[in-house]
Amino acid sequence: MREKAIGKMVIIGIVIVIIIIAGVAGYYLTMPKTRLKDTLIMGTTDSVESCLDPARAYDFFGWEIIQSLGCGLVEYRAGATGSIDDIVPSLATSWDVSSDGLVWTFNLREGVKYDDGTEFNATHVKYTFDRGIGIADEDGPFVGIGYSDIIENVTVVSKYVVKFYLKIPFAAFLSLMACQASYIVDPKYAPIDSVVEYNATNPRASHPMGLGPYKLKSWTRVGGKDDEIRLEANPNYWNASGGYPKTKNIIIKMYADATALATAMNALEIDIAFRQLSATDINSMKTNTNLRVWEGTGAFIQYLVLQEKYAPFNETKIRQAIGAAINRTTIVQTVFLGQAQKLYSMIPIGMFSHTDAFQTLGDPNYTLTRELLSEFGYNEANKLSFKLWYESSGHYPQSPQQAQALEASLEASGVISVTLDSADWASYREKRRNEEMEAFILGWYPDYIDPDDYIYPFVHSSGGSWLHHNYNSTQMDELIAWARGNTSTTVRSNLYEDIQDLLVEDCPLVPLYQGSAYAVTKTNVKGIYLDITQSWRHWMVYAEE
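User: That's the sequence. What structure does it adopt?
Assistant: Structure tokens below.
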């Protein structure tokens, strides 16, 4: 009898548990599910500089779109800090490197398809780099980064295995493979001997990729400047099963200036505002309960370029005098309200080998400025006069205010007279190419996370050719070559310290400040990562309805 009673109790217990589980499951099944918006609108003052071809595009916003339309062999994980461990698989599932650092082998992901259904394989990797090096242009990344100085050749081992044979054991090679210039192209859309340009009537013909989370649905330009770009989810994206992209449609609207962008964001006409909002508007938006301000790591730098082709900047001491007369505190505190850091090196703060090398010139040191200029006959009665250029179309944050702060800083020396001039970004770029500007302000976002990316593209005689500042130094080229070809972090750090010291001595460029990354969104927007890569990951952003 006792055993029967126990049996009944067990059965009753099981029934109760089943009823409870069924009830809980039923509750959750009937709960309203969180729905995500299928369309998000981003506002920006930025624009694609030239095209969406990885072999030629070399601007922040162009790369932002490229990384939504394409993929590389590897990528930096969201929230990256710059560590090599932050690099994760993308089109390659694994890789290894030879003991001498000269041979990299990548095992490719199988079953990946382009947006038109064509299967991706190792021949596309070889084609991409052969093409990029073959059509390299001085204004493009393959020259600016120096791919041909790094890569000897790319060899197809099998359908899903590819080898890179390098000329030097380039320490930043894996990081280079994560940058947008290394994104794989589809040979059907990427002619071997020419760049893919904007096509007003056919969005698919406007880019050569097709392996990314999005397809280019439309791209509207007015007068050479972007008006609107629409991205649509790519159903063939290799990570679609992982839930990406989170948002089906992204609409990017371009605004004339920071004021217009802020007005649209405050009115909640857009979901996201990114590049470029003024420091005043960012501070104001922090108190708006309808908005969220996102702040991230700043690897963006701004610097002053001095053209050595023409007098007076063909004289080293005059360039040093300009460097000594810059008041970075005014730029950081007055223009950016503390939302930036004073920068004394082309290598950003926080990156290994950074030193405050330019502090040796002062901040400012007007006594040094006057002493140096007096050697050339300049004084309060005979001032050094020149034109300082800045871009006027919102490509960089608060460019007019930056220029005005620099003008005031330089003229406070009492021996310098500055005239300001400006041009929209397209014209500014042409003036740089044509070497028409004697002194001008530029900015830089990282291609790959390594000191090399803040040195080689600026002061190496080959890599820095896109700047057209006519700086050439055999000593600098040798130091850079030694730093590029060494895998010891300690040795490289010492070499970059020497490079930074030589930059102060030669002064072809003067670092100004290092900016922070900001975005503003409606409060329901999530999935934003503003990390050291400065990459905007459209496919991870979403909003709850």
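The chain has two domains: 35-290+523-545, 298-516.
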